[in-house]
Amino acid sequence: MKSTIARLTVAIGTALMLTVGASALERPAGDVVLTVRGAITQKNAGEAAEFDPAMLRALPGRDATLQTPWTEGETGFSGPYLRAVLEEVGATGSRLIIRALNDYAAEVPVIDAVDFDTILAIDMNGEPMTVRNKGPLFLIYPFDTNPDLYNEKYFSRSVWQIKEIVVVE
After folding, report:
1. What is the residue-averaged pLDDT of the chain?
2. What residue spans define the domains of the chain?
3. Per residue, what are the HEC states of 15-78?
4. Whole-model pTM?
């Protein structure tokens, strides 16, 4: 029970920080690779927030070398933390609908961005991800630092070829 209360407190605190601390979001200068819609306060394209690769690479993130069910052997991924993207757009919801180029979608609780160092990988093995190799973006859970996440529950949330995130209240 205490763990649930602590997680909710962190999530509420993060949500407050997201809405209070956000500054104006610049327009992308390059090709748009991610659109975020829904319960967000910072927009740069009508009712949405758009990002190009440079904007995503400028956000706090991490490099990870890990094994996934979709790649062979140890693979390097780098990109911004999912929580950094949510902070940038002033996300206020509790759920995310993450949609791929082929319209596959998975529901991901926002708490996954708070509790885990999930990243929106934009580079694989030091190279920009392409549609051919699961790009332009791939939601990567920290399987390297938390082996308990290496299971079907989190595999089903690990969307690749991401084009859009919808933040839901």
Report:
1. 90
2. 2-168
3. HHHHHHHCCCCCCCCCCCCEEEEECCCCCCECCEEEECHHHHHCCCEEEEEECCCCCCCCEEEE
4. 0.86
